[in-house]
Design a protein that fits this description.
This protein is of the alpha/beta class. It has 2 domains: 188 residues, D-Maltodextrin-Binding Protein, domain 2 (3-Layer(aba) Sandwich), CATH 3.40.190.10; 95 residues, 3-Layer(aba) Sandwich (D-Maltodextrin-Binding Protein, domain 2). The protein is built from 12 helices and 17 strands. Helix 2 packs across helix 11. It is elongated and about 60 Å long. This is Glutamine-binding protein.
């Protein structure tokens, strides 16, 4: 496929061309972007997928794989497909990975683009159910080399996958409708309001541990829609996601940021257990990007200013 790698920032400024192009394989029916519609095929797209589709059409491949043979990079890193670093993710999860104007962009995407560049290959993205990341199913079946999905490192998940060094310190946040007056979980409980969370996430687990029975939504977009349509009065989700939502003036008017919930979470990229070579390559990029300022640049571009306490080395 052609290399088309020009994007735009959240402010609309033109971004520098990214090195190798990123293809996207979407788990779902051909006409749809999200895997939420089900289906049995993958839809490959370049980073500028809308343009590529207009020029070349859409190729459908089967769910059993891409048909490429595995390979090893010059650095000895095994890959499931020659010339590609295949990434499992779950769209959308802004600001970490989401589709904008036919491109899959975001903080995670940009970091893994740098890993791919270091390995001399291009990144390919496969949109899959979030549940697969916890079990490592798509890694074990040889569909993907790694998972990048704003995923919290937990001891339970470590039983199934190996994690990179942490690349992001996360916290949870409460978001409520503007007119609700809700600013804390205590108020949700006292007023017997409906609480929502994304299914399978640490945010959902945290509020369940606090005694809540949250309405579970399949994706971050569904969480926001549930709040917007009155299915719930408040939601708990990762704070960077809330930051992204509130950049939209309509959302800023409709919702109010409440309690910050410190959970000590850190995100990591995951690889198949025992894939030490790829894990080391990812760790190298995380550490080097922090040292050379690229991490801070990407953080400011996709998330916002990097807190000073987080500008040092990887924890």
């Amino acid at each position: 496929m052609p290399t088309i790698s020009v994007g735009r920032s959240r402010t609309g400024d033109r971004l520098p061309a990214l090195p190798p192009s990123t293809e996207v394989l979407v788990f779902g029916k051909a006409p749809a972007v999200s895997r939420r519609n089900g289906g049995t095929g993958y839809r490959p797209r370049t980073r500028a997928g809308a343009l590529a589709a207009a020029v070349t059409g859409v190729l459908i491949t089967t769910a059993c794989g891409t048909g490429d043979q595995g390979a090893t990079t010059a650095d000895g890193v095994p890959l499931v497909a020659k010339g590609k670093l295949t990434t499992c993710t779950h769209l959308p999860y802004p600001p970490f990975q989401f589709e904008r104007d036919g491109e899959v962009v975001g903080f995670d995407v940009a970091l893994i683009d740098r890993v791919a560049k270091d390995l001399g290959v291009r990144q390919e993205i496969l949109d899959t159910p979030f549940e697969n990341f916890k079990t490592g199913a798509f890694l074990n079946s040889g569909e993907c080399d790694l998972a990048a999905a704003g995923m919290t490192i937990t001891e339970e998940r470590k039983k199934n996958v190996d994690f990179s060094v942490p690349y992001f310190d996360a916290t949870q946040a409460l978001l409520a409708t503007a007119g609700s007056g809700i600013r804390s979980l205590a108020e949700v409980e006292a007023e017997k309001r409906k609480l929502g969370a994304q299914s399978g996430t640490t945010g959902e687990s945290h509020v369940q541990e606090q005694g809540f029975d949250p309405v579970a939504f399949e994706s971050s977009d569904a969480v926001l829609n549930g709040l917007r349509t009155g299915q719930v009065d408040a939601v708990v989700i990762d704070y960077p996601v809330v930051q992204g939502w509130l950049k939209d003036p309509a959302n800023a008017r409709a919702f109010r940021l409440g309690q910050s919930i410190e959970t000590g979470e850190q995100y990591g990229f995951s690889v198949k257990k025992g894939n030490d070579a790829l894990r080391a390559a990812i760790d190298k990029v995380i550490r080097e990007s922090r040292a050379d300022g690229d991490y801070e640049r990407l953080h400011e571009e996709w998330i916002g200013p990097l807190p000073r306490a987080r500008t040092g080395g990887t924890s």
